[in-house]
Amino acid sequence: MKKWYAVIGDPITHSLSPFMHEAWFDEHEIDAAYLPIHVEPSQLEKSFEAMKTLGISGFNITLPHKRSIVPLLGKLEKSAMQMNAVNTVSFDGAEYSGLNTDGDGFVRSLLVHDVDKTAKVLLIGAGGAARGIAYALKRAGFMDITITNRTYRRAEELATEIQSSAITLTESEERLVEFEVLVQTTSVGLTTSEALPISLNGVKAGTLVADIIYTPLETPFLKKAAEKNCVTLNGVGMFVYQGAIAFEQWTGVQPNTEKMIQLITEKLG
Ligand code: ATR
């Protein structure tokens, strides 16, 4: 019988998840469909009940529901508990459980670039996205993580949770040469503003500089990093790998991520 998957969010029209999952279902000849569903915050509980009644096999959750879905789920995997946010729900035959594949998706995108787990990593930002990545880096065995954030207290709190260290934005600019990997998780760069979360004047050539944003493909941060001869990594990899981990959870099949990164980059280019 055909299986049914979805992504819920508000807004939802620009989501690339239906394109990605439908392409993978086709490629692996899996009899399933994946729909974008517009769900307003006040309708979340009712919509989830409706999807359960109709027997949905799994769904992704995007803004603004990642946290509000948590109390509605019977079971949470460790990744979702640590972040108190869910981006993937799957039905195991008895109940719907929530996991969060965002952080692990980012870590996979780093690992395919042969980043060593002993690398000195500077995580810029301490919001929801940074939280997922910090925990995932820690779970994956990264040993040297430093967190910096505009509001220093939030950097300190997250660093305490994952047993790493925190520094101020100014300190991070002064000590930039020490880091081998920079991970930009703030919302700076999402708008047309040319502002950077930190200055890259002191960055070492060859440093891997990652931004989790993928619209635009090249943020002002990555543009500056490229001018400084750094290796740059945009957010398409994280997006595709978070989807791949969800797909694996639902189907047991590992989808073709390389080709999908290429297709999505072309679509956004
Ligand atoms: P998300 O879930 O996308 O991570 P968030 O939880 O609102 O969103 O976090 C946004 C992150 O971007 C925070 O680290 C925020 O810094 P503060 O904790 O100081 O608010 C950071 N951020 C947003 N605007 C920024 C700016 N103009 N300069 C530097 N950091 C900024």
CATH topology of the largest domain: Rossmann fold
Number of helices: 10
End-to-end C-alpha gap: 37 Å
| Form type | globular
Question: What are the secondary-structure elements, in order, as H or E?
Answer: EHEHEEHEEHEHEHEHEEHEHH
- Strand count: 12
Our Rg estimate from Cα atoms comes to 19 Å
Oligomer: single chain
Low-confidence stretches: none
Mean pLDDT: 96
Tell me what you see in this structure.
The structure is a single chain. The chain is of the alpha/beta class and 269 residues long. The protein folds into two domains: 3-100 and 239-268, Leucine Dehydrogenase, chain A, domain 1 (Rossmann fold), CATH 3.40.50.10860; 104-234, Rossmann fold. It is 38% helix and 19% strand. The chain has ten helices and twelve strands. The strands form two sheets. The chain has a six-stranded mixed beta sheet with strand order 2-1-3-5-6-4. It has a six-stranded parallel beta sheet with strand order 9-8-7-10-11-12, with helices on both faces. Strand 1, helix 1 and strand 2 (32-38) form a beta-alpha-beta unit. Helix 4 packs across helix 9 and helix 9 (236-251) packs across helix 10 (257-268). 45% of the residues are buried. It binds 2'-monophosphoadenosine-5'-diphosphate (ATR). Residues 125-130, 149-151, 154, 185-188, 197 line the site of 2'-monophosphoadenosine-5'-diphosphate (ATR). This is Shikimate dehydrogenase (NADP(+)). Its EC number is 1.1.1.25.
